[in-house]
Amino acid sequence: MQKTQHEYQFNFIELVKFLIKWKKHLALISLSAAVVAYLITLFLKPEYKSKAVFYPGTVNSISYALFYSLKERAQDVLAYGDEENVEQYLQLAKSSQLREKIAIDFNLIEHYGIDSDDPKKFAKLNKKFEKYVIVNRTSYNSVEVVVLDTDPELSAAIANAVMYNTDSLKKQSQSIIAQQAFNIIKEEYGAKIAIIDSLSEMTRTLGNIGVYNVEEQSRGLAELIGKGTSNSFTDKERKNLGQHVGDFVSLDEQIRFEAEQLTDLRKKYNQAKLDLDSKLSNIFVVDIAKPNYDKAYPLRLVISILSAIAAFLLSSITIVAMERYQNIKGSLSQG
Q: What is the CA radius of gyration of the chain?
């Protein structure tokens, strides 16, 4: 323990001696590096940072969320999304479809100084986009869109566009499915109405031959016969009912059955139409990006200090290496 402490004191003394010996050189090199770094940053275009933050929603079907049966679990349209929802929105925000739309809307190929005739222009655009447009999940399970740009107003506009276009992409994908579902339900709904109309036409045909309500007609005939009224009319009615009672009962049951299905289909039809026409946003905006005129890069003072420290360390290592080399060379020459 004492040996270690002694070595530490010895090394510290050696370090102090080294710094005193080479203080002018180290100071000059460090200062020169700081000045050069500062001058270089003067030629760099300042970049400004804007940030938009939102929470994803949880509802995919607004009709299911608003109109649910007692057997179904209600969905809260105001609930924030969980980890799975956040992952979905991160995928949408980083998708090539969204990147292409943002690039077109803001003419980013020209803005980033990419030659429009360059065959690799899209690859270069993707690299620039990934560098300057950053989409991440926050520790609070929200989605954060950070944009760096030389124009503070454009930086904010791009951040907001990424946020709102992510919502639009979500609604667009939902709309495609909703349209398909609506078309299927609409076709089934129309077919069911056609079946009921056909059955109703058959009952009207029976009505034309005097069979329109078997239960009431049978009760009326029974009362007449019970009172001793039996003639050609009652005999004809009884015969007519006897011939068509089976058809009437069958048609009546079919119409009731089809009407119940039509009621269910009408509910699904209205729900599908609501999903198709729904304009409900899928995101909860926390922060709208605003132009920030305080530059985020380059931070000249920080870069100068870091350059001075790096130059100091590098020059110190170089001087130590040179001294060791001279010592070894001297030892070898004496030997």
A: 42
Q: How many helices (H) and strands (E) in the chain?
A: 11, 5
The yes-or-no verdict on residue 121 having pLDDT over 70 is: yes
**Per mean pLDDT, which of 24-28, 167-171, 325-329 is the most reliable?**
167-171
Phi, psi of 282 (to 5 degrees): -100, 5
Q: Which of 276, 285, 282 is nearest to 59 (CA)?
A: 282
* Among 142, 100, 143, residue whose Cα is nearest residue 125: 100
Structure-token pair, residue 212: 């329109």
Give the DSSP letter string of 77-130. TTPBP-HHHHHHHHHHHT-HHHHHHHHHHTTHHHHTT--TT-TTHHHHHHHHHH
Compute how many other C-beta atoms are within 10 angstroms of the C-beta atom of residue 37. 20
What is the three-class DSSP state of 134?
strand
Q: How far is CA 182 from CA 33, 59, 67, 185, 271, in A?
A: 68, 18, 16, 5, 9
- Of the candidates 84, 64, 285, 275, which has an alpha carbon nearest to the alpha carbon of residue 174? 275
Q: Which residue has the tokens 């305080």?
A: 294
Q: Is the pLDDT of residue 246 over 70?
A: no
Which of 112-116, 188-192, 257-261, 277-281 reaches the highest mean pLDDT?
A: 112-116
> Is residue 155 over pLDDT 60?
yes
Measured distance between the N- and C-terminal CA atoms of the chain, rounded to whole angstroms: 36
Q: What are the extents of the domains in the chain?
A: 1-44+299-335, 182-277
Distance CA 29, CA 310 (A): 10
Contact 218, 248 (CB under 8 A): no
pTM above 0.70, yes or no: no
In DSSP terms, which residues pair with 52 in a beta bridge? 145
Q: Provide mean pLDDT across the span 34-53.
A: 77
Q: What SS3 state is found at 68?
A: coil
Instruction: Specify whether the CB–CB gap between 149 and 155 falls below 8 A.
Output: yes
